[in-house]
Amino acid sequence: MPMSNPLEAKATPGPGSSDPPRGKWPKVLPPLSPEQKRINDDFMAYWHEVLPREYHVADRFNHQYVRRCPSPGFRRTLEVGAGLGEHLLYERLTPEQERGYVALDFRETMIERLKARFPRIRACVGDCQTQLDFPDNFFDRILAINVLEHLPDLPRAVEELHRLCDKHSGFLSVVIPCEGGLAYSLARRISAQRIFERRYKRPYKLFIGREHINLPWEIYGELDRRFTLLERTFFPIPIPLEFCNLFIGLTLRPK
Fold first, then answer.
1. pLDDT of the chain along its 255 residues, tens only?
2. Is 22 a member of any domain?
3. Could you tell me the pTM of the whole model?
4. Nearby residues of 175 by Cβ (< 8 Å), 6 or more positions away
5. Residue 128 sits in which domain range?
6. Any idea what the CATH number is for the domain that residue 138 is in?
7. Is residue 19 domain-resident?
């Protein structure tokens, strides 16, 4: 649905929220023990396998939303947090677009698996919260599918995505979860939480408490500093309410 006002829902916490005060960046996460890091890395890779197989309806929305392109003549794409490359199964790239596709993830083990699956695209280990080795305005299209909610230094990431996005015709396509909403919390309880606790015999909050650290209103607020919202879409109910939805799709232009 087209938006007349940019990210008007920004920077207001949900009513009755019990979360601690947010907005101080970067957010500091408690250190992980070697065993905790092993579990977190293992579950992140495992969940990237389970999600498209067992929860394909929601996963399909995530990937199909960002595949829609305001500029069909794009040449260069940056996908941040590319994981195992699941999104590439949804793309229909020309040879030139394939050569210009960069998949970025900070987990080296996942990038190695992505390279094996998709040898014709460029897969890189990197963190979008730091300056990446690409010139200003380099990418026509930047994709962030369920990534921004994870980033402790979200403002720095938004600055970097803005630097890399072509200011003339480029755009940023984002999907975020309705974190904190009723429907999303219930769906997670019967999916990721159930799988995690069965697999590791540990409380899921030890994992998700350091992963989904940014709420939608925080993400809106940071994006609004550098981008103009073109469209916002909710799934599965196409009305702009978070409590009854699972995901939000955003299409933005750099300011």
1. 334 444 544 433 333 333 434 448 999 888 889 999 999 999 988 888 888 777 777 889 999 999 886 667 899 999 999 999 999 999 999 999 999 999 999 999 999 999 999 999 999 999 999 999 999 999 999 999 999 999 999 999 999 999 999 999 999 999 999 999 999 999 999 999 999 999 999 999 888 888 999 999 999 999 999 999 999 999 999 999 999 999 999 999 999
2. no
3. 0.87
4. 61, 62, 65, 66, 144, 145, 146, 247, 248, 249, 250
5. 44-254
6. 3.40.50.150
7. no
